[in-house]
């Protein structure tokens, strides 16, 4: 029996796709990477995943795990060889259990993030991971890339939000690691090893997620600023005044918001006059456990102080849930507006907050000196130092011309990241996009240990080959 016949017998004929039926799974969200596959296989259970992995391991067939296919680094796209099986986990979308007293939820890897948020809310709880792609990205992909989003400042990344995992190893064994314990000091932390591994060590099939009480009240504001230095000063002020209640602090260049209002005319900035054309804006949010009045008083005090000390030029505080959503919609629409405007050279980076203004100023100047006319599309989660620093075609540039200089642009940006002690990936992962650059930013011993772990858990190199690490020679 051939490999494909065995796979059909395992998951059913309808769930093994080939040819044109497989095409949607072979291109990444940004349409930068296109591959070929032997087939796309969609199991419905952990046992089926394990059977598929065992079949592929026996035949030496590579496996590319895939969730919602919303990644930005080509981490879930197969190569051009056509040898790999794309393992789509979208059918594994059950919420297995919710324990409101333990504040945990067991979910399968194919659950869409928004469905998990909704299920938690129905149980009177909050699952706080929030991403622009939450309507289509899946928990498995979130875990595989250690996703962060807009509330890392308060709740942390997926490593902090997952207490236990269920994983199918490269051999096809099942690790039953779902547990809702906050403390479990019994050896190596395998959970943290698989989270962020981008499917290169095994297949995450389910997780025990950490839940939180729903906030009693929240406040949202959009603040107009003259500089990133002012944004950093406002962040410091908000941290002192709001403490752990500060759940979101998003930095956006004025050009980013202008691109949103051009691409989506129904959206608009809630400012008039000079405040509508300033170079920087911050969207911040407070979540309060006491009352609406308490939240509003604290929020207005902090923002009033910011205006008084000139950290803020103008402030709009949402007066309703609808207004709050409209402000967040501006922020969430930036990637869509950017995609509509054409392809860009993207960077998802971590920078010490204290050096953020220095990095942006010096990197912008360097890029303009070497590539005059390019546009700087800058936004991100300033509260945790995560910046989406993208370079887009400007006057005299086409998509093709810009992408032809991608490696040279990477070199400039990465050099400046190194000077300020930053990281080339904050939340999007390495995938194919940053694989070759990783060696420049990892200590040689650290990189050697990563290769040792990869070889120990995936000795034949069949799990998502070509991602994260350059294959051993």
From TrEMBL:
Q: Which domain of life is it from?
A: Bacteria
Q: Which residues cross the membrane?
A: none
Q: Which Gene3D superfamilies did the record assign?
A: 3.30.465.10, 3.30.70.2190, 3.30.70.2740, Uridine Diphospho-n-acetylenolpyruvylglucosamine Reductase, domain 2, Vanillyl-alcohol Oxidase, Chain A, domain 4
A Pfam family cross-referenced in the UniProt record is FAD-oxidase_C
Among InterPro entries, the record links this protein to: FAD-bd_oxidored_4_C, FAD-bd_PCMH, FAD-bd_PCMH-like_sf, FAD-bd_PCMH_sub1, FAD-bd_PCMH_sub2, FAD-linked_Oxase-like_C, FAD-oxidored/transferase_4, Oxid_FAD_bind_N
Q: Which residues form the FAD-binding PCMH-type domain?
A: 33-214
Q: Which UniProt keywords apply?
A: FAD, Flavoprotein
UniProt xrefs under SUPFAM superfamilies: FAD-binding/transporter-associated domain-like, FAD-linked oxidases, C-terminal domain
The UniProt similarity line reads: Belongs to the FAD-binding oxidoreductase/transferase type 4 family.
PANTHER family from the UniProt entry: BLL6224 PROTEIN, D-2-HYDROXYGLUTARATE DEHYDROGENASE, MITOCHONDRIAL
Can you name this protein? FAD-binding oxidoreductase
- Organism field: Rhodanobacter ginsenosidimutans
The uppermost taxa in this organism's lineage are: Bacteria, Pseudomonadati, Pseudomonadota, Gammaproteobacteria, Lysobacterales
């Amino acid at each position: 029996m051939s490999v494909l016949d065995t796979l059909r017998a395992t998951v059913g004929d309808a769930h093994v796709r080939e040819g044109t039926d497989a095409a949607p799974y072979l291109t990444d969200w940004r349409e930068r990477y296109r591959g070929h596959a032997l087939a796309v296989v969609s199991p419905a259970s952990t046992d089926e995943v394990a059977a598929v992995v065992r079949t592929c391991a026996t035949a030496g067939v590579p496996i590319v795990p895939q969730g919602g296919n919303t990644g930005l680094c080509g981490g879930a796209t197969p190569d051009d060889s056509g040898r790999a099986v794309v393992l789509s986990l979208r059918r594994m979308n059950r919420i297995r259990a919710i324990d409101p007293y333990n504040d945990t939820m067991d979910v399968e890897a194919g659950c869409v993030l928004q469905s998990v948020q909704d299920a938690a809310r129905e149980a009177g709880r909050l699952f706080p991971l929030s991403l622009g792609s939450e309507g289509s990205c899946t928990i498995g992909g979130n875990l595989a890339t250690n996703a962060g989003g807009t509330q890392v400042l308060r709740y942390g990344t997926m490593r902090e939000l997952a207490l236990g995992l269920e994983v199918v190893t490269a051999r096809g064994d099942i690790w039953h690691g779902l547990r809702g314990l906050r403390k479990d000091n019994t050896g190596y932390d395998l959970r943290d090893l698989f989270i962020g591994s981008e499917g290169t060590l095994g297949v995450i099939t389910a997780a025990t997620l950490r839940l939180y009480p729903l906030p009693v009240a929240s406040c949202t504001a959009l603040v107009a600023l003259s500089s990133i230095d002012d944004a950093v000063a406002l962040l410091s002020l908000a941290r002192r005044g709001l403490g752990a209640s500060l759940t979101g602090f998003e930095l956006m260049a004025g050009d980013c918001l202008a691109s949103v209002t051009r691409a989506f005319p129904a959206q608009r900035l809630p400012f008039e006059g000079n405040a509508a054309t300033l170079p920087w804006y911050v969207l911040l949010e407070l979540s309060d456990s006491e009352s609406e009045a308490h939240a509003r008083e604290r929020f207005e005090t902090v923002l009033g102080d910011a205006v008084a000390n000139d950290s803020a030029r103008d402030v709009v505080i949402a007066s309703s849930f609808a207004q709050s959503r409209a402000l967040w919609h501006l922020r969430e629409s930036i990637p869509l507006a950017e995609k509509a405007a054409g392809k860009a050279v993207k960077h998802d980076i971590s920078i010490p907050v204290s050096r953020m203004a220095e990095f942006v100023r010096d990197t912008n100047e360097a890029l303009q000196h070497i590539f005059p006319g390019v546009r700087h599309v800058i936004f991100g989660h300033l509260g945790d130092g995560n910046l989406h620093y993208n370079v887009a075609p400007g006057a005299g540039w086409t998509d093709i011309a810009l992408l032809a200089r991608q490696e040279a642009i990477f070199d400039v940006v990465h050099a400046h990241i190194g000077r300020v002690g930053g990281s080339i990936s904050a939340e999007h992962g390495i995938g194919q996009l940053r694989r070759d650059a990783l060696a420049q930013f990892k200590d040689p011993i650290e990189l050697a240990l990563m290769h040792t772990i990869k070889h120990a858990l995936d000795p034949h190199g069949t799990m998502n080959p070509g991602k994260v690490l350059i294959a051993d020679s």
